């Protein structure tokens, strides 16, 4: 008997155990963060070309970080471009649990989100870092690029932003893992470069995985496009 007419159950994220950090020096961390930022971009021809450079550049990183980044680079290089692009859109544009906008997880679609975005803008200015304006300022690859390209102060500011939004990064990791997404590897590689997750952050992650961020629909114009955040969809 065919069961094709039955609805398919949704994939639910579950909180994963924290990852033990890997020791990297400043230069290695910069390489890892820049590689992750590149690989988390939409997999167009430019990203696929950059993936070849990434695969070579990460060779000197510790194995747990290197293998994840090199493996994703190989997937992007060897996979079918159209299929990868469709998968990327279905993952990051249509699933709120997979949003790469860090303040979304804690602030959701509330007025607090606007204040959080302003803090990101101010942090970039303090670091002397200019963004293109194509994405909201809390876009994870942008923060990773600041960590990689910034001077010592810029790297510290990026580290503070990542630490302040570690719960969102962990929820993103859990959601991607539940989807068995190839981009899980990039987020895992980032998590391996960050300090251990403390008890308070772990508790927030558990709450967010279950309940999702607060909701109070407001406009977010003026902070970038951000149109790919799936903000009209339920927490899924």
UniProtKB/TrEMBL annotation:
Keywords annotated in UniProt: Nitrate assimilation
Keyword Magnesium carried by entry: no
InterPro entries associated with the record: DMSO/NO3_reduct_chaperone (IPR020945), NO3_reductase_chaperone_NarJ (IPR003765), TorD-like_sf (IPR036411)
Keyword Cell inner membrane: no
SUPFAM superfamilies to which the protein is assigned, alphabetical: TorD-like (SSF89155)
Signal peptide residues on this chain, from the entry's feature table: none
Protein name according to UniProt: Nitrate reductase molybdenum cofactor assembly chaperone
Organism: Isoptericola hypogeus
